[in-house]
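Might you be able to consider the sequence and fold that I enclose below?
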Amino acid sequence: MLRIDLHVHSKHSSTSQNQVVKFFKSSESCTEPEDVYRMARARGMDLVTITDHDTIAGCLEMKRSHPETAILGVEATTFFPEDGCPVHLLVYGFSEEQFQRIDHLRTDIYRLRDYLAEERIACSVAHATYRLSELLSIGHIEKLMLLFNTFEGLNGCRSVRANQGFMDILASLTPQVMDELERKHRIRPAGDTPWRKSLTGGTDDHAGLFIGTVYTVIDADGPDGAADAIRQGRTEIAGESRDHRLFAIQIYKIICDNFSHRSGNTRKLHSELSGYLLLDRKPGLINRFKLWRMGRARSAIGEGIRSLLAVGEDRSISYEERLKQIYRHTVEFSDTITRLFITNLLALFEKGTIAGIMGSLSAPLAGLFVHIPVGFALKYLTKDVTFQKNLRKRFIHEEKNYRKKILWFTDTINDLNGVSVTLRNIGWLSHQRGEDLHIVSSVLDDEPKNELPPNLINLKPLFHFPLPFYEKLTMKIPSFLSMIETLREYEPDEIYISSPGVVGLFGLIYAKLTGVKCMAVYHTDFTLQAKMIIGKESPLVGIIEGYTKWFHETADRILVPTNEYIDVLTRRNFTRAKLGLFYRGIDASHFEPKREGREFIRSRIDIHDGINLIYAGRISRDKNISFLIESYRRLALRKQSTNLIIAGDGPYLEQLRAETADLKRVHYLGEIPHRMLPLVYSGADILVFPSETDTFGMVVLEAQACGLPALVTNSGGPKDIIRNNDTGFILDPLDADIWADKLEEMISWIEGDDSRYRDMCRNARLNVMKRFEHGKIIDSFFSESADIATAQGESGQ
């Protein structure tokens, strides 16, 4: 039994297709053929091959030096002639003359397959589900199953999920399936038992780091019999795939290796540092001194260098563990640089020093450089997830009962606003129903957590600061690299995003890197809020609109709470085809009329008589509260015993208190915990909600569930909750007299015990229970199997 890594690259490989390597104008590999041989043998390989792309120059060089233990190999790029779809085919044990013929025939995969079969040359389809081109379809995979009986089951550069998923598919094949494929594609299957596929394994190493960590065990006595053993399927596979951490290190190593061949002392230093950390190669004397001096510095860079060098000197741990520790220290170093950069940037913004701000942008480049290989590693390892799910669905039928896995990103989860309340409800309800949904947010250590659902994934903030104009809200900035580390085991089918802040932006980037379908929920109209707060002429309004439009348009789907907002965003040039409804529900067993509501209100504020109007929500100018106060002033002249209760907190609260100091029947409750809101609504008679900027209006839904009639404006989402003249009234937000008149009319109903008011209370709750039932909010996400349709179709013909 002999061990051999059947997929390795040297410096003779062609130009890389990896985007980040191409960005740095790097070659695919800088590893010398002799180094490939030395490392493979050091890691226990009995035989060695090199499988460069479409060349055997490196393998010939190695075989001439080691004829007893080396076999010729190549990774040939071949094509389906009907549409030009490329496939990589690993070929072994041929002569130089045979390679010339292979290179000539590889433009046609059918002719190449026939030649290899005639010459009894061993081959294995490399990483079959890795899409070298968007042309690759399920139909092409079906044809490969007919053409070949050996596949690369374990590729070190593919994820565990991708490798195992394809091996499961191969194991599921039956004579009936192969007969079906033969009839479909009119290709005679190879061999007598084409449903039995053999497997090979290799590292697909390009950096000289992982050679021999994934390999094939061959039932052969020496190199002469190795190719026959591969061809006859006398193989077993061993080793482990690389995750995004080790793959990122490989990309970084390739870039540094290329830098070492270019001029420049900094590039040389980078290369020698990576060589020391990754390959135990000591730097030259001058660079050793530079690293020592950098490590002595009392700074974030100095601390980072010291940590990395300490790991490099530790020989008590395994090589793979050392690489993972290097990655962890690199992430910590990057986070430190990011934290310092944000601190300095905020300080410069406060001073208004534009030149200083522009100058400081060079500071985080060292930290940013770490993100680039990690991001591309994640994208490479996950880019074909949808295609692989489709393929699995095609062959493994138990997938029909598959339930989606969802990650839901939000910057706000612990506040009293409608977005936070909705997401906490979604989190709790999905947890109670056993659905695989996790809320991803960022919560500070000192924030209350008793109402947070157990399926919350907390990304610990690197930095936080109060938002301008919204001092009660805190912007939190977690570590992007740590987020990737936290989320790598979840493997979502869909990603939802409820805010365009930093956490939401991270979710959007993560969705794009992993190829997961992404839905952005348009909860809040920040543009309208900005117009109300800072004035519509401010250039900042245009910036906010441009960013939020870009953010939501970048997602695959934009979900809005009401039909009203589909029309609103269409008029603002959002792509209508992307717009859809986001169902909102409420727990009507929690939000229901409470008899003790009046007593609760009296226990909080000094109210003993009169009709109670209530406003609940954030206290800010964008909620049109100044209009509400003007309407109330006019009403109070006619109905002097009417109380206005304001529940909530926000940046406008103190100024509002001052503006209403002369109004003795205006009362402030402050923030009310979510669990106590039904008591507040039940202690009132009418909800007044004059906001024009709400896309939905969760407060309105909650109040209606508690049997409270509501007055809302004819602009925005709340009007879609109200049934006009039946559960409340939809009014002009610009005419305070109309509001005062309608309130006076409703108060007269209450005072006269008019059935119209009682009917409105009853209808409000019935409307909520009929249209906004709580369970439907989860059903809308999980009622169907995961959406894994492919644009390429099933046949590929």
